[in-house]
């Protein structure tokens, strides 16, 4: 058991790359016990079916990769809550997995309970792997948001419905071969 990755791509065929640029990464199965309100469908159905409508609404027509990270196999919701209090095996597994995944300027969509899981992932190995965090729902502490750092754009939504999340995730498509964006001046 470990972290599982699912990909939805508008490019066909899907071509894995070493460092996906500006991907949307949806965390599932962490400390949040219930299915996220922005997911649709039956909670018992396949994970990709649960998020299909959201992914279709936010994906760009040009080559775009959207990733669902399933944490439910690495630890239970209660174990993830314990890991947030005292980091242990599951957090280390997530950190190692995220380093191998190697995104560049990722947008991460999480429930408020899972924001603490993103904090150690923001700057691994001196690289900014996360550019933006969208927290779908109120209840995240301001001290936790501050731990993400001043260079990370954090959006906390008061409503976690799919329409609010879709609006907040308005973004350009991602592409493995896209050139680096120049820093804002």
What are the main properties of this structure?
185 residues; alpha/beta; 6-stranded mixed beta sheet; two-stranded antiparallel ribbon; 6 helices; 8 strands; globular
Distance between the termini: 45 Å
* Largest pleated sheet: 6 strands, mixed
The overall pLDDT, averaged over residues, is: 83
Estimate the global geometry from the Cα principal axes. Answer: globular
Compressed to H and E, one letter per element, the order equals EEHEHHEHEEEHEH
Structural class: alpha/beta
Contiguous runs where pLDDT drops below 50 for at least 5 residues? 172-185
Instruction: Report the C-alpha radius of gyration, rounded.
Output: 15 Å
For the biggest β-sheet, the strand order reads 1-3-2-4-7-8
The amount of helix comes to 25-40%
Q: Which band does the percent of strand residues land in?
A: 15-25%
| Number of helical regions | 6
